[in-house]
Task: inverse folding
C-alpha cells in the first residue's frame, strides 16, 4: 500500500511540474515589481546577519538551489521564488539584506525566519524582523524609489506592483503553543487570539496600502498540526495530526477571509486576495500511506532545523517536508502553482 501510494505521489508531482512548466513562460513580467513579506517560508536570507538560531545559510540547505545555501529554509527555491518565476521575473527578488539601488524597482524580499505578526513572536530563538519592522524597511525602499522617480511616477509604479504576505504560523508555533516562553495561551482562547492577531494584521495591511500597495495577496496559515515537529512534540491523541493546533489556526483563517472581503468592499482602488494554504498539506497528511513522507528529509537539531553538513535524503521530490517545519522545493512548486492561478485574478 505504501509503495502504491508513493507511486501515485510521483505521478501527481510529475503532472504538477508539467503544468508549472506550461505556466512558466519567458517574456515581460506580468507586474513591474514584486514585494514579499513574511517568515521562513519565504525568507531568502534576511536572517543571515542576525543573532538568532533561526538562520540556515549552511548546507544541506540550498543543496538544490543555484549557488548553494543562501539562507532559504529549504533544499531549493521557496514558494516566493517560484511565484516570481511564474510572474515572469528572470531573476530572484533580492533580500532586503542584499538589495542594491539598481534592483529596488523590481522589488524586495523582507521576510524573516521565526517572525510573525506580533512583535515578540519567535524571539526565544533570537532576533528577527517582525512584520511591523518589515513594513518599516519597505518604507525605506519606498522613499528611495520616490527619490529615483519622483512622487507621481513612484506612486504609479508602486500601485502596479504585486505584494505577497506569508505570515502568521509563527504566532502559533513560536508563540501561542509555547507557554514556556509566552503567556498568550493563558491570556486568550484560540478564537480571541485569532481576533487579536487579525486586528493587528489589519492595521499592518493598511500600512502597506498607505505605502502604495494595490494588488495584495495574503496567505492563510497551513495545517501546522501536521508538521513533523508538531506530531513529534505534541499529543496527537491518536490522530494523524495535532488537531487542536489546526483548529486554532482555522479561527485565524476564517477571520482573515472576512478581513479580505472587508478590505475589498472598503478600498475600491485596491484588490486583495486570500490564498488558501491548507489544501495540499491536509489532503496528503490525511492519508496513512503518506506517513513515511512526513519525517523531513534531513537529520535535525533540537530546533527542528537540519544539522549542518549532514547528508539529506536522496529522493527529495518524494518528500513533502525538508526539515521538521519547512516544505521541500517540490512542495513549494505545488503551492506556488496553485496560488498563482488565484493571484492572476488581481494582476
Result:
Amino acid at each position: 500500500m505504501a509503495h502504491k501510494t508513493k507511486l501515485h505521489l510521483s505521478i501527481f508531482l510529475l503532472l504538477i511540474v508539467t503544468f508549472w512548466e506550461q505556466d512558466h513562460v519567458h517574456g515581460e513580467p506580468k507586474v513591474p515589481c514584486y514585494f514579499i513579506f513574511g517568515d521562513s517560508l519565504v525568507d531568502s536570507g534576511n536572517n543571515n546577519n542576525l543573532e538568532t538560531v533561526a538562520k540556515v545559510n549552511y548546507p544541506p540547505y540550498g543543496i538544490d538551489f543555484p549557488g548553494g545555501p543562501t539562507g532559504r529554509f529549504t533544499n531549493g527555491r521557496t514558494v516566493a521564488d517560484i511565484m516570481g518565476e511564474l510572474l515572469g521575473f528572470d531573476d530572484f527578488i533580492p533580500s532586503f539584506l542584499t538589495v542594491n539601488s539598481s534592483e529596488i524597482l523590481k522589488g524586495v524580499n523582507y521576510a524573516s525566519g521565526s517572525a510573525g505578526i506580533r512583535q515578540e513572536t519567535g524571539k526565544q530563538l533570537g532576533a528577527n524582523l517582525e512584520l511591523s519592522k518589515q513594513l518599516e524597511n519597505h518604507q525605506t525602499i519606498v522613499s528611495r524609489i520616490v527619490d529615483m522617480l519622483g512622487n507621481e511616477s513612484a506612486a504609479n509604479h508602486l500601485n502596479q506592483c504585486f505584494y505577497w504576505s506569508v505570515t502568521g504560523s509563527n504566532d502559533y508555533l513560536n508563540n501561542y503553543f509555547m507557554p514556556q516562553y509566552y503567556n498568550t495561551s493563558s491570556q486568550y482562547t484560540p478564537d480571541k487570539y485569532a481576533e487579536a492577531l487579525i486586528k493587528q494584521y489589519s492595521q499592518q495591511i493598511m500600512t502597506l496600502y498607505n505605502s502604495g500597495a494595490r494588488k495584495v495577496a495574503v496567505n492563510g496559515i497551513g495545517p501546522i498540526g501536521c508538521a513533523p515537529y508538531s506530531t513529534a512534540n505534541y499529543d496527537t491523541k491518536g490522530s494523524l495530526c495535532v488537531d487542536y493546533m489546526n483548529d486554532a489556526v482555522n479561527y485565524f483563517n476564517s477571520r482573515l477571509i472576512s478581513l479580505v472581503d472587508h478590505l475589498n468592499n472598503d478600498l475600491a482602488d485596491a484588490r486583495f486576495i486570500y490564498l488558501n494554504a491548507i489544501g495540499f498539506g491536509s489532503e496528503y497528511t490525511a492519508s496513512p500511506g503518506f506517513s513515511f513522507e512526513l519525517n523531513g528529509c534531513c537529520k535535525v537539531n533540537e530546533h527542528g532545523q537540519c544539522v549542518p553538513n549532514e547528508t539529506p535524503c536522496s529522493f527529495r521530490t518524494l518528500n513533502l517536508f525538508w526539515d521538521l517545519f519547512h516544505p521541500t522545493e517540490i512542495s513549494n512548486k505545488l503551492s506556488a502553482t496553485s496560488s498563482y492561478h488565484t493571484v492572476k485574478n488581481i494582476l
